[in-house]
Design goal:
The protein is mainly β. It has two domains: about 180 residues, Coagulation Factor XIII, Chain A, domain 1; about 45 residues. Helices cover about 15% and strands about 35% of the residues. The protein is built from two helices and eleven strands. The strands form three sheets. A six-stranded mixed β-sheet has the order 2-8-7-4-5-9, with no helix packed on it. The protein has a three-stranded antiparallel β-sheet with strand order 1-3-6, with no helix packed on it. The radius of gyration is 20 Å and the shape is globular. The termini are far apart. The structure holds 2-acetamido-2-deoxy-beta-D-glucopyranose (7 copies). The site of one 2-acetamido-2-deoxy-beta-D-glucopyranose (NAG) has 6 residues, from loops. One 2-acetamido-2-deoxy-beta-D-glucopyranose binds next to loops.
Length: about 240
């Protein structure tokens, strides 16, 4: 009873979706909100407040499946998803030094509504980051980031040990644990440079950029997430 009152409060104040990793595994349930994490654990970089697992999951040395449910809790119906890898156990808490190696280009996710939705996303063959070779027994951590449309990010991780493809310790991937729900959509992300680094700004160039910004705002797209400091414009189409 108390639990359901608390949950309602959380939904109305926090108001954003959370991620559950369904394949190949999860560090553990970090959908927690308490006095230590008044905004919720999942906002904590790099792995949503969860320490490195002792129970690692096996994952293929040539890359493999990753599946997750992005729509826990009420909130936004659009997000940008990043999937990164961190190598080894030389970093804090016997985890990776950093989570800086991108596995797939970031992509837009379109949910059915602002309400909680149970849909699942499955990427059946996520490759290793470019120019990396992993051997059976190597340890790494996969990080899934859900960037909400207001700019804050939710983190979830799974700690893996690489195994040769076909190793029976790798969890079987099938249509039960790895599928795309029909109520979820995807969007590509494009970058349009509006001012090159070092370019001399000219009044006519400025107004052209301003008119692009104006059209984005009038289209109401993505709450105007425009990192002008980077000289780039993110568009979700
Ligand atoms: C590891 O153990 C924790 C705690 O029992 C559990 O929540 C988590 O799902 C486990 N992870 C894997 C990959 O089995
Ligand atoms: C909040 O939850 C985390 C994770 O379970 C736990 O480590 C922490 O002690 C909790 N804080 C409080 C004040 O209960
Ligand atoms: C990988 O992690 C496992 C389980 O935590 C550990 O037993 C093993 O020593 C680690 N391997 C390396 C190379 O660090
Ligand atoms: C990030 O991690 C990689 C692999 O562990 C390491 O080679 C690199 O130096 C790290 N980068 C920074 C900035 O610490
Ligand atoms: C899919 O794999 C899981 C885990 O091995 C298993 O529990 C489930 O029964 C499988 N489903 C089908 C349809 O084969
Ligand atoms: C799910 O959709 C993504 C994005 O279109 C696609 O890359 C992936 O292959 C799909 N997964 C399955 C199991 O079809
Ligand atoms: C500024 O724009 C005008 C009109 O397009 C152009 O003639 C001029 O060369 C530009 N100046 C610079 C510094 O780019």
């Amino acid at each position: 009873m108390l639990g359901s009152v608390f949950t309602t409060l959380v939904l109305s104040t926090l108001a954003t979706a959370h991620v559950i990793l369904t394949y190949p595994g999860w560090r553990g349930n970090n959908l927690i909100e308490n006095d230590t994490y008044p905004f919720g654990m999942q906002w904590m970089y790099p792995c949503g407040g969860m320490g490195t697992s002792r129970n690692r999951t096996f994952w293929p040395t040539l890359g493999g499946a990753i599946a997750f449910q992005p729509g826990w809790f009420q909130g936004h119906d659009k997000a940008t998803i990043y999937i990164n890898l961190g190598f080894g156990t030389d970093g804090p808490d016997n985890g990776p030094k950093n989570m800086s190696f991108t596995m797939v280009p970031p992509f837009g996710l379109l949910g059915p509504s602002k309400g909680p939705y149970p849909g699942t996303v499955c990427l059946p063959q996520v490759p290793l980051p470019p120019n990396t070779v992993m051997n059976p027994g190597d340890n790494a951590t996969i990080q899934v980031v859900e960037l909400a449309q207001h700019g804050a990010a939710l983190y979830s991780c799974v700690d893996i040990t690489f195994a040769a493809p076909g190793d029976p310790r790798i969890g079987h991937v099938n249509e039960t644990n790895c599928f795309n729900s029909t109520d979820l959509g995807f969007a590509d992300i494009y970058t349009i440079t509006t001012k090159e680094v070092g370019a001399i700004v000219n009044a006519s160039t400025t107004s052209a950029a301003a008119s692009v910004l104006g059209s984005i705002h009038s289209a109401g797209a993505w709450a105007g997430y425009v990192p002008l400091g980077l000289g780039a414009l993110w568009l979700l189409l």
